[in-house]
Design a protein that fits this description.
Layout: E1 2-7, E2 10-13, E3 18-26, E4 31-39, E5 46-51, E6 59-60, E7 68-73, E8 78-83, E9 92-100, E10 103-106, E11 110-115
Length: 116
């Protein structure tokens, strides 16, 4: 089992920055990929960015490429998402995702609100 706890969400003005964190615990050695997803009201959950524990194999959704940066600290078992130049359409609940051979795990999400 893997447990994921997100933090760092909040209210930010358009053009501002936020840094999200996701603390992983449990069988973290079984995780081969970590990712961030988001879900806005009335919309489906969508992929944002992914990386492995060493910080490699990064990939971003076109909508955030160049503005968001995903990173990891394997010693702390933590995944990060630095979000710069936030846009109003970036307002959503952001979820951490961990993939293992046994399945995928999700955190409870952290709310990001962007004021225009």
């Amino acid at each position: 089992q893997v447990q994921l706890v997100e933090s760092g969400g909040g209210l930010v003005q358009s053009g501002g920055s936020l840094r999200l964190s996701c603390a992983a615990s449990g069988r973290t050695f079984s995780i081969y990929m970590l990712a961030w997803y988001r879900q806005a009201p009335g919309k489906e959950r969508e992929f944002v960015a992914r990386a492995n524990w060493s910080g490699g194999s990064t990939y971003y959704a076109d909508s955030v490429n160049g503005r968001f940066t995903i990173s990891t600290d394997s010693q702390k078992g933590t995944l990060y998402l630095q979000m710069d130049s936030l846009k109003p359409e970036g307002a959503a609940i952001y979820y951490c995702n961990a993939r293992t051979a046994g399945g995928a795990y999700w955190g409870q999400g952290t709310q990001v609100t962007v004021s225009s």
